């Protein structure tokens, strides 16, 4: 009686190595499914990029800083790139100071994961959100939503309570 089964080494690192008699095709399929499931359950880190120039205007800087803050609040990492052109390449300290200023401005939302380094015409720095920043942002949203709902609820019962009193005072 032939069962079309194979001798499969399940745990080769164990002492002694563990083997099972099973269908090898089914074993390969199940291990592929487990690998796919484990990849699906992993957290995908999203890296957003924000590009700046060394001679950026104050309003433009504030706008870019707002974008970086929004990305960090959402739980994404942010790669900040300073692009140097022409003579600006001879003054990398301007870009370094700008990156330090940005890191200080968003210090309450994130930290410097990779410090500023120059590669060619660009200087880059990676900011990462603090641990639990995304959950804190969600908690703040739910608290604000609950407070908004609580503010709207008392207004309706007061008008409903005032209506019977008005009817009792003015019987028709």
UniProtKB/TrEMBL annotation:
InterPro entries cross-referenced by the UniProt entry: T_IF-3_C_sf, T_IF-3_N_sf, Translation_initiation_fac3_CS, Translation_initiation_fac_3, Translation_initiation_fac_3_C, Translation_initiation_fac_3_N
Region (Disordered): 132-172
Superkingdom as given in the UniProt entry: Bacteria
PROSITE patterns: IF3
Major subcellular site: cytoplasm
Ranges for domain Translation initiation factor 3 C-terminal: 46-130
Gene Ontology terms: cellular component: cytosol; membrane
Its job: IF-3 binds to the 30S ribosomal subunit and shifts the equilibrium between 70S ribosomes and their 50S and 30S subunits in favor of the free subunits, thus enhancing the availability of 30S subunits on which protein synthesis initiation begins.
Protein name per its UniProtKB record: Translation initiation factor IF-3
Encoding gene, per UniProt annotation: infC
């Amino acid at each position: 009686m032939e069962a079309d089964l194979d001798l499969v080494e399940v745990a080769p690192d164990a002492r002694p190595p563990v083997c099972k008699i099973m269908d090898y095709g089914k074993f390969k399929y199940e291990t592929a499914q487990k690998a796919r499931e484990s990849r699906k359950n992993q957290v995908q880190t999203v890296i957003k990029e924000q590009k700046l120039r060394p001679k950026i205007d104050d309003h433009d800087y504030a706008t870019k800083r707002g974008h970086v803050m929004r990305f960090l609040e959402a739980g994404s990492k942010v790669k900040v790139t300073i692009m140097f052109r022409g003579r600006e390449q001879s003054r990398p300290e301007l870009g370094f100071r700008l990156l330090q200023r940005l890191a200080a401005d968003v210090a309450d939302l994130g930290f410097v994961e990779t410090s500023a380094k120059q590669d060619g015409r660009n200087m880059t720095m990676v900011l990462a959100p603090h641990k639990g920043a995304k959950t804190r942002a969600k908690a703040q949203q739910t608290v604000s939503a609950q407070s908004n709902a609580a503010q709207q609820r008392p207004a309706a019962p007061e008008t409903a309570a005032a209506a019977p009193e008005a009817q009792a005072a003015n019987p028709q």
